[in-house]
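Entry 14. Structure prediction run on the chain below.
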Amino acid sequence: MRINLQQSMKMSQQMKLAPRMIQSMEILQLPVMALQERVDQELAENVALEVEDRDRTVSESEETAEREKARDENERSESEKGPLEVDNDDGNADDFERLVDMAESWPDDNYTSGSKPSSNRISDAGDRAFDAMANAPARTQSLHDSLVEQFGYFDTTPEVRAFGVYLIQNLDEDGRLQSGLPDLMSAYGRAITYEDAERALTLIQKLDPPGVGARNVQECLLLQLSDELEYRDELEVLISRHLEDLAANRLPAIQRKTGYDLETITAAAEELSHLNPHPGREFRSVPAQAVTPDLAVDRDDDGKYSVRLLDEYTPNLRISKYYIKQLRNNPDAATKEYIKKKIEGAQWLIESIEQRNQTVKKVTEAIVEHQRDFLEKGPEHIHPLKMEEIAEKVGVHVTTVSRAVSDKWVQTPRGLFPLRQFFGGGTTTEDGEDVSWNQIRLKLKTIIEGEDKKKPLSDDALVEALKEDGYNLARRTVTKYRKKMGIPSSRQRREYV
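Output returned:
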């Protein structure tokens, strides 16, 4: 085998994203509260970035009014000169001279002038901190902690108490034991008699919530039967022997096997529906996610809709004039390079946020224009919409639209909705009208709610009912959407009395 060394040339195309473009895409994808966290992080890491007090826009004296006028004139002149470029390789002498001039035109800020922060800024910061503490969820007691606390009230032997605590720690999130008592005794690692183990389990099964400590669904439901239930005896028989028939709504079969009449079986099944096969889940607290809308859709007196950004959670940012002066006056080259990079990062962030806000607003305006019928008439009138259509209207790539609507919510006169909800496919009716799948699901739900429950419609009958309204769908499509909506089959929906 011979090894040869040779040189060759190859041409290939590669796409490399600049750091600024990557940052812009990340900022675009952030919802408003995540954007606020990102801004807070940047403020802590970048000394050249600072917050501009929103209240400074209010003039309280002639001096303040003059300063505001000077700033406006300076901004107009700067807009005529074009955007600042802080990342060129030529030293940016002219651009940084402009930054220094702009800094001198700004009124003194609360960070570089040596004065204390304004009372309004302190109040706003205190309000945000108080809201964060007030909205922090309190730690809830777990299922195991609650059961151990209750178990401690029993007067029993140390052996039974220790094994009882061991059994409680082996309960799953439903409050049930996944293993039999002999297996748990073997894994316990300490000597204990079967009588003591059974005594510990019996005590656990007396705790709240009712049904904990069961080894299967039947035992869990049987533990919840109380003498106050009108059909307690019938329920004990149904749970022990006919639970599968009940789940499948095979009431006539239960009638033949038990001799109970249909009225009794139906009434007992109604009582059974109030029992909880998963008692432990009451302690599985899933904190509700607070939704903060990024935008709002308003309707004026003429019936026109407008979109506005809700940016009160995001502070106004600007580049620190103190560090702009330091860039000019500091003689140390390393320090100047450090400040230059910080100013560059601050400028990138400010522009990325501005670009994000403009893109999200334009995308939402295009969505509102397409879904006007939804705003006027309700969710059943939402139209099919693809992201490609909005991308073409706005003049951006489809991936930009996807990032712009990701985790974003909009407050409309119809309520609060995620922007992604306005996208979806659909079909065409026999009249040539485009309808969304959401509209079809609502129609399917309406048909099932209005059916005769003693003779519920099969999936084939649902296909025919939809066809009468102009929706020509395959049976498998109807079945798929029925299952997605959690609607049981016609046999399970049937009522016998």
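The longest strand covers residues 295-299.
Filed with the rest of this week's runs.
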